[in-house]
Amino acid sequence: MKAIIYRDNGAPDVLRFVDRDLPAPGPGEVRVRVAVSGVNPTDWQARSGTGHPKQFAEITPHLDGAGTIDAVGEGVDEGRVGQRVWLFMAAAGRPTGTAAEFTVVPAEQAVPLPDEVGFDVGAALGVPALTAHRALTVAEDGPRRLKPGALDGKVVFAAGGAGAVGHAVIQLARWAGATVISTVSTPEKARLATAAGAHHVINYREGDPAAEIREIAPDGVDIVAEVDLGTNLALDLAVLRIRGTISTYANDSGKPVELNVLQNMVLNTHLQFLVLYTAGPEARTAAVQDVTAAVRDGALPVGENHGLPLIRFPLARTADAHRAVENHAVGKVLVDVTS
After folding, report:
1. What is the rounded distance in angstroms from the CA atom of residue 4 to the CA atom of residue 317?
2. Ramachandran region, residue 93 (left: φ > 0; alpha: ψ -120 to 50; beta: rest)
3. What are the DSSP E strand ranges found in the chain?
4. How far is it, in rounded angstroms, from Cα 145 to Cα 330?
């Protein structure tokens, strides 16, 4: 099979396009013929060694993808052969990610994908959708699960609504019944956040964004899904309701975070940091189940018309796909693996 591998951390040039033997699934595992591989910031961070110690001599990157099960290991229902699936955390603690024609994962990390849902949607789930679910289910007063009506009466503020996680936050929050506000930095990103389903979109570089948000939500927002805490904390606190939650999944600018302790005490702020690796199996299982339900309901489409442009590369150009993500390409970067 064809695969992308790296043996040393470094720039995208460490990625090599090679031939490798077909992997065999072990007990409790499935082998998937990968159609599309999704690329996330955590993938290039792992490749570069940024906060991710290299665990194996040779690694095939990428956590997310979609394809078809073609073999199963001992203890797995043989009826799963031929099943279309989406994959998550394929390269987490394993050397076999989705940037290859075939990959092997634990059976529970290959989630059935409805026949009417394309592989592009499947490859775009994983990190963005599961992170978005976690961001929306950590508030003190719930909910812990998402379904239609779960967020009725709530106001969700999605910072950076044109990003992959922000896009998923908008879609899942809207599906669950929330009023969704998103901030963006350009008119083009505003168009994308609106297409994703945000009810209100505000350019944070113009006017008084806090006043605009307070006009929409006089009592404050219930949940903030935050991509750049260092830059946006002051705005988040200015619009947060008492006992509201700031769910932080990134700090894109790298700006240090300074907390006004008294301000947060008075607000009873719930400040939740999150990452999938350490969220725990119960939270991940709940997220997979709820995201699957949202997919069945058609709530997580991708593409230009749905607010998440697709940027495609062939497997041999995976290094260019990594460069695109590192350079903050607007949209979802996908690698086409097999047809």
Report:
1. 9
2. left
3. 2-5, 16-19, 29-38, 64-72, 84-87, 102-106, 110-112, 155-159, 179-184, 200-203, 221-226, 240-248, 270-273, 310-314, 332-336
4. 29
Question: pTM (2 decimals)?
Answer: 0.96
Q: Are 136 and 294 in contact (CB under 8 A)?
A: no
**227-279 per-position pLDDT tens digit:** 999 999 999 999 999 999 999 999 999 999 999 999 999 999 999 999 998 99
Coil vs helix vs strand at 36: strand
d(CA 90, CA 293): 21
Instruction: State the Cα–Cα distance between residues 331 and 315, nearest whole angstrom.
Output: 18
Helices 187-196, 164-175: axis angle to 10 degrees equals 40
The alpha-helical segments, DSSP class H, found in 22-79 are 41-48
Local structure of 33: helix, strand or coil: strand
